[in-house]
């Protein structure tokens, strides 16, 4: 009995101890006079995320709204203190003007030091990131996009052919057909492989893509329990996925080197960097992009040697595959859902596509795609309403006093910007809850402050492959819409519920649409 009593007392004392520790921790913003949303013990403001009831991006958007009209405020992700930035001028300072104080992602801080896949451009830090970012800049210029355009167009034509074989009024899962298309595009443009997942939905590439974005409780635990990061690093990335990409890249690089094969694709640039770290570019736009990037990071660039090992090449290919396959297919499927619910927008967009094609001898060219202005508006409105990333994060590298504030952000502090919160703010968008492409007329864009539309991030850390992603989505949209119409299927659950257990911004039960062939 005495042992049980002592055990109960010990547990009670531990509970009291931890209660007071959390209470002291959670009073941080009170002590500094910073507005914040009251946290829940242990979970902070992210209990719904931990319980898989809500995505982290949706939670941050809710907090963004609750902190109106403040320029910034506080929140807790577990035990981590985080500043959420709301004011567009302050966002500009953090992402651009004072970038040197906030150049690293939280992703970079959390990246496993042992996992080769975490040595990608998103996760690298400091000078290593700067050097690699500069060397990769030439991959995604308009000139390179024009060279890769026929490859993307061929994948679009194949998707069009697959859709032509379905029955009239057949129901499809929009994400499935879009993901098979983007998988083929990335396989072709990054690895030089004809994956053909459009005809083989069970292809190994398609299965790997699904595994990348499956919910991983380890990633939640690494955020909630940072002191145990060393342990969670052992389980950070799916070992089968890691081995698949390591083997694939190693074999492909070896084959190209032995047979002197050059395709002008993403992998070729990395192979060139492996053999010649100081190569010069003849692409004027690449040079301009490099100079723009250097000026954004403070006009300072210390050139250092980067050894492009097969592992480092694999990490970049993995990131390109994950981003190009997952985010683009999600955007395309959300676009189809909105068009199915707004037939007048779908009809107007299809009319533009048909007209532009007729004016270009019914041939889809890189120049023809650029003429589709309403398609640009529809894609931008999709990215506004359904930002795949949902939020931007940064780590403060030096003590930083927030302009027009007494608060100094300590070194190592985390910051976040809710892209979704900004995209739904009625101060910036006339009809935030509606699908309204007119949000992106030239006049409407000119009336908004900068940094109110950031689907690809902002500043020097902006997504390097934005041009490629937009081209991929636009080509896919043309082949999906030119002689096929989409309507909401009876299988579709409305209003949409999001699936927080999936890494990307996905819909519970999927997006079901009914297809009708047009003459």
Automatic annotation (TrEMBL):
InterPro entries from the UniProt entry: Cyt_P450, Cyt_P450_CS, Cyt_P450_E_grp-I, Cyt_P450_sf, Insect_CytP450_Detox
**Where found in the cell?**
Endoplasmic reticulum membrane; Microsome membrane
Q: Name one Pfam family in it.
A: p450
What PROSITE patterns does its record include? CYTOCHROME_P450
Q: Where does heme bind?
A: 463
Cofactors, names only? heme
Q: How does it sit in the membrane?
A: Peripheral membrane protein
- Which keywords fit this entry according to its UniProt record? Endoplasmic reticulum, Heme, Iron, Membrane, Metal-binding, Microsome, Monooxygenase, Oxidoreductase
- The answer to keyword ATP-binding applying to this record is no
Q: Name one GO cellular component term.
A: endoplasmic reticulum membrane
Q: Name one GO molecular function term.
A: monooxygenase activity
Q: What is its main location?
A: endoplasmic reticulum
Q: Which family does it belong to?
A: Belongs to the cytochrome P450 family.
Write down what this protein is called: Cytochrome P450 6PZ16
């Amino acid at each position: 009995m005495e042992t049980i009593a002592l055990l109960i007392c010990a547990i009670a004392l531990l509970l009291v101890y931890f209660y007071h520790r959390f209470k002291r921790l959670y009073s941080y913003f009170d002590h500094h006079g910073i507005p914040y949303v009251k946290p829940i013990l242990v979970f902070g403001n992210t209990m719904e995320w931990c319980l898989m009831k809500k995505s982290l991006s949706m939670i941050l958007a809710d907090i963004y709204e609750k902190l109106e009209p403040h320029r910034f405020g506080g929140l807790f992700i577990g035990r981590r203190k985080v500043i959420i930035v709301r004011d567009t001028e302050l966002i500009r300072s953090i992402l651009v003007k004072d970038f040197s104080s906030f150049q690293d992602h939280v992703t970079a801080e959390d990246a496993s030091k042992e996992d080769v896949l975490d040595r990608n451009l998103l996760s690298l830090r400091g000078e290593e990131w700067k050097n690699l970012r500069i060397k990769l800049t030439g991959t995604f210029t308009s000139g390179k996009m024009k060279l890769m355009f026929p490859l993307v167009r061929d994948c679009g034509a194949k998707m069009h052919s697959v859709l032509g074989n379905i029955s009239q009024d057949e129901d499809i899962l929009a994400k499935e057909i879009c993901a098979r298309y983007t998988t083929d595009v990335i396989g072709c443009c990054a690895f030089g492989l004809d994956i053909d997942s459009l005809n083989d939905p069970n292809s190994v590439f398609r299965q790997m893509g699904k595994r990348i974005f499956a919910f991983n409780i380890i990633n939640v635990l690494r955020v909630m329990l940072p002191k145990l990061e060393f342990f969670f690093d052992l389980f950070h990335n799916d070992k089968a996925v890691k081995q698949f990409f390591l083997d694939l890249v190693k074999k492909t690089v070896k084959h190209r080197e032995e047979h002197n094969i050059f395709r002008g694709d993403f992998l070729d640039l990395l192979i060139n960097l492996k053999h010649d770290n100081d190569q010069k570019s003849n692409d004027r736009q690449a040079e301009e992009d490099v100079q723009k990037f250097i000026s954004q990071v403070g006009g300072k660039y210390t050139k250092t040697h980067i050894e492009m090992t097969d592992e480092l090449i694999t990490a970049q290919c993995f990131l390109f595959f994950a981003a190009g396959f997952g985010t683009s297919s999600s955007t395309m499927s959300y676009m189809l859902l909105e068009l199915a619910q707004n037939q007048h927008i779908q009809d107007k967009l299809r009319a533009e596509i048909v007209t532009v094609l007729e004016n270009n001898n019914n041939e889809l060219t890189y120049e023809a795609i650029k003429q589709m202005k309403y398609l640009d508006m529809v894609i931008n409105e999709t990215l506004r309403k359904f930002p795949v990333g949902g939020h931007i994060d940064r780590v403060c590298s030096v003590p930083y006093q927030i302009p027009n504030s007494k608060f100094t952000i300590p070194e190592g502090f985390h910051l976040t910007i809710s892209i979704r919160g900004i995209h739904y703010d009625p101060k910036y968008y006339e009809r935030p809850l509606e699908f309204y492409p007119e949000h992106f007329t030239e006049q409407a864009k000119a009336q908004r402050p900068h940094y109110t539309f950031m689907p690809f991030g902002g500043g020097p850390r902006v997504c390097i492959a934005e041009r490629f992603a937009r081209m991929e989505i636009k080509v896919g949209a043309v082949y999906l819409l030119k002689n096929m119409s989409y309507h909401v299927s009876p299988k579709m659950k409305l209003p949409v519920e999001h699936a927080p257990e999936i890494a990307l911004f996905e819909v519970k039960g999927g997006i079901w649409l009914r297809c009708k062939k047009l003459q």
